[in-house]
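@channel anyone free to eyeball this complex?
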Amino acid sequence: MIDVSHLYKSFGDLAVLEDISETIEKGEKVVVIGPSGSGKSTFLRCLNLLETPTSGTITFDGEDITHCSGKELDRLRRRMGMVFQHFNLFPHLSIRKNITLAPVKLGLMSREEANETAERLLKRVGLPDKADSYPNMLSGGQKQRIAIARSLAMNPEVMLFDEPTSALDPEMVGEVLDLMKQLAEEGMTMVVVTHEMGFAREVASRVLFMADGKILEQNPPDEFFNAPNNPRLKDFLSKVI
Amino acid sequence: MDAIKQFFANFGRKFVINFVEQNRWRYLADGLLNTLIITLGAVILGFLLGFIVAVVRSTHDKTGRMKVGNFFAQIYLTVIRGTPMMVQLLIIYYVIFGAVNINKVFCAVLAFGINSGAYVAEIIRSGIMSIDNGQMEAGRSLGLNYRRTMLSIILPQAFKTVLPALANEFIVLLKETSVAGYIAIQDLTKGGDIIRSQTFEAYMPLLAVAAIYLVMVIGLTKLVRLLERRLAKNDRR
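replying in thread with the prediction:
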């Protein structure tokens, strides 16, 4: 579904990603872990071109998104949901408007349809009574669940999660992870950058370990966590588990 | 003490001489009307100009596009902010429109609007740049294009942030129109001055002029506070 080939990304002189090639199949749940500064967030952000790769190609469903027009890119981005570490809800809009803004402005749904979708999604993320609240009235966990609902309103085919629980108080991490697990069970294709090893173990179909801009090891979670090969990964796991 | 007593004893008589006799209050009323027309026109023009320049400049800062637009915007800002308002007014009236017979009030609206636009541009740009980049990324990741994200997500938030600074700019503008008299427009200040030249009284007409400006500014401030409160409804916690 997503094909990455020979992806390079550098900021000035700093090489962040070096020759990454990877394929993500439909229905896969890929979890990316690694020390901070390893390039895992940049890798994720390249997938929907929030970062422009220095070189290499990324194809989504057969279409080359690294060399397409801006219009084409906007169209492709609708099909890839993204959830951010800092939620990035729109603080000037009510929760309902946060969810319905994109589908309505892009002409995908009428306002009534979008409102119904919002009601349905709010029920699904367990916050049915928050439609008329504003983002800064919510807790971090609630904000992140709304952010997920906002992405889902576009009916994406793949969801990208950029450290979705890193900015949360510990007691709120569970509610967001539970929602993500539920999504995974429903068959959503997911790419998740996270530090939650428990989540990786339980949900991932494949875990990638990144360091120094390269993917050093990847395996299904059982092998990945129980029989790591790469010395860097062994070292990393010994520190975090 | 005597001077103060004298002042109050004469107050009524002087009021009559300066404002009632020969309907002299009309100078102030006509002047006020011109001041309001110039200010309102200049606020609208300044806001439109400033808005466009701000969007061009911040688009350039954020994305690197619009190089030509940014170049001209820079020249505009440098020239307008680098020369006195009054000189600009005189140049527009006597140089640019020197050869044609043109409505002076229109000239003033143009001059004050172009001047204000430069300051409004930088105010709005500072608002746009103050919005976290995550907002743009969130909009773009939902498939909204740059323009749509700007209009629906960035600008409404930026506007709220800069409202106090914008209000301040328009208050300054209202008072700055008092130099319109230099191209022989009879604005509020000039109206007071005409009365002074007829009655040879300085403090009555000039204090009246000052009081009228003050009342207008207080009214404008109240209006802005009302708007701010309306826009702050999503800040409740």
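from a first look: The first helix of chain A runs from residue 40 to 47.
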